[in-house]
Amino acid sequence: PPVYDTWLSTYGYLDYKKIPNLEFQGDFVDVAWRPDGSDALLLSQGGDLVLYDPVSQTLSALADLGGSPARVAWQPDGDFAYIAGRDGDVPRLWRYTPGVGVAVEPFIDLGGLRLQSVQFHPEDGRAVVVGFTESPLINRAYVIAPPYDSATAQQAWGGYPGMVDACFARPDPLVYDGAEFILTSEGWSGAKSRTWLTTQGTVLENGWKASFGNPGRATWHPARPLAVLVGTSSNVLYMFLAGTWDKVYTQDTGSNLSGFAWNRDGTRALITGRAFGNPLKGTVVEYRLLEGVAATAGTFVDQSIPGFGSAPYAANSNTYLHAV
């Protein structure tokens, strides 16, 4: 990667290095770095839990989960990671502990539940796990707090669309009188976001606009009272700030966004999506926030992977970079 003297000074372009892989088949659907940066976990569509070692730049198998994992997230201290997904019609919340292995958490076992995501609160270590059941569609969210032996709070509400992600919000005295809340991303078969006031056990409308498209991954800013939901059917970011929604387009830098991640201090983010362009590029967009101006003001820089349609990628216009 480039050297950044400070986030306000010299920016460079990302230098991509290929990681040899002859073992794991199918898409990698998610990635999560251990909080200390020592290694990263990857999930394959076929159910593999894979370790990436940045020193040797190699991939190695940790476990065959025996199901369809969707999201992986590290507990903030790096003691373990949760993996949300399902095995057939059975929801699965796997727990990977370094040096121990993988176990299935037993306290989310509702038949037919499609677990879609898990995220941790960055400060107190609670996890939020979300998904939905079909026929009828019921959205379900669970909060799991230390010592991680039960769901300490849960909420359910009916009606389309289905929930694909949710994130803990940074309390804001201007929003819900400073109460704690979780922001949902409901982008399966429709487009919606709602607010779960966890202490009151209430789900509220939050001003999501009917003109917005389908949202996907949800991320809360590390320092500002700002949430970002990626637009999975366009090149737009949906931003929730001070109780108000806005949308920002990533200009001509790709479409059908899928991945979004802030750096540690929230000065920059990387966004991934569907391959685009002629010649084809693997969509990676850098979002640089500006300091001292509006909380959502920033610039976009195309950091896409060149030559994506050629070997060794051999991608096409339906190829996605799912996560970052």
What does this entry show, briefly?
The protein is an all-beta fold and 324 residues long. The protein has no helices and 24 strands. 0% of the residues lie in helices and 45% in strands.
What does this structure look like?
By secondary structure, the chain is mainly beta. The protein contains no helices and 24 strands. The chain has strands spanning 28-33, 40-44, 48-53, 58-64, 68-74, 81-87, 90-97, 101-104, 114-120, 127-133, 138-144, 151-158, 165-168, 182-185, 194-197, 202-205, 215-220, 226-231, 236-241, 244-249, 255-262, 268-274, 284-289, 298-302. It is globular, with a radius of gyration of 19 Å. The protein starts with 27 loop residues before the first strand and ends in a 22-residue tail after the last strand. The model is unreliable at 1-10 (pLDDT under 50).
Pick out its properties:
0% helix, four-stranded antiparallel sheet, 324 residues, 45% strand, disordered N terminus, mainly beta
How are the SSEs placed, and which strands pair?
Blueprint: E1 28-33, E2 40-44, E3 48-53, E4 58-64, E5 68-74, E6 81-87, E7 90-97, E8 101-104, E9 114-120, E10 127-133, E11 138-144, E12 151-158, E13 165-168, E14 182-185, E15 194-197, E16 202-205, E17 215-220, E18 226-231, E19 236-241, E20 244-249, E21 255-262, E22 268-274, E23 284-289, E24 298-302
Antiparallel strand pairs: 1-2, 2-3, 3-4, 5-6, 6-7, 7-8, 9-10, 10-11, 11-12, 13-14, 14-15, 15-16, 17-18, 18-19, 19-20, 21-22, 22-23, 23-24
